[in-house]
Design brief:
about 160 residues, mainly alpha, Arc Repressor Mutant, subunit A, single chain, two-stranded antiparallel ribbon
Length: about 160
């Protein structure tokens, strides 16, 4: 991934982490918050999406992703499944109820991502490297804080 894309990816992580601290009063796609929408996004694009894969992509703990997935399952926006040859692992896919949200988010995400890439490209490579290092440092701090907040004794798949 080139440097402008990495910088924008770090900005998106910061925005997703900030959403985790909100109290649900900010609606996005109806009753869903932005973190739930992003969870649907990753489930929709990952091959054999599970709690661990989604957790890694979103930079959140498995416990937090597990809680989000339970809510999305109850709302019938995602569904779980197991492979016949391995009934130990639980995977997720976007259910019919979540497909409109997935598609609408994809369109919006691509548009907004492109707008941010254009801003980042205004900086030369050295400036982008400094920006990226700063954002990665900030994200590390935020992720460390989130792990403490969401850590539970049952933080497993």
């Amino acid at each position: 991934m080139d440097q402008p894309h990495r910088i924008v990816a770090e900005l998106i992580k910061i925005a997703e982490h900030a959403d985790a601290f909100r109290h649900g009063s900010e609606d996005f796609y109806g009753p869903l918050n932005l973190t739930e929408v992003h969870c649907i996004h990753w489930i929709g694009i990952l091959d054999h999406a599970n709690v661990t894969k989604v957790s890694n992509e979103m930079g959140m703990t498995r416990g937090a992703i597990s809680k989000i997935c339970k809510k999305l399952l109850q709302k019938q926006l995602i569904e779980s499944y197991q492979e016949p040859e391995n009934n130990k692992n639980i995977y997720f896919r976007v259910a019919d109820g979540g497909k409109d949200i997935f598609e609408a988010h994809k369109v919006t995400h691509n548009q907004k991502f492109g707008e941010k890439i254009n801003i980042v490209k205004k900086y030369d490579a050295d400036e982008q490297a400094v920006i990226l290092r700063f954002l990665m440092d900030i994200n590390g701090l935020v992720e460390s804080s989130l792990e403490k907040i969401y850590a539970t004794p049952s933080d497993v798949d």
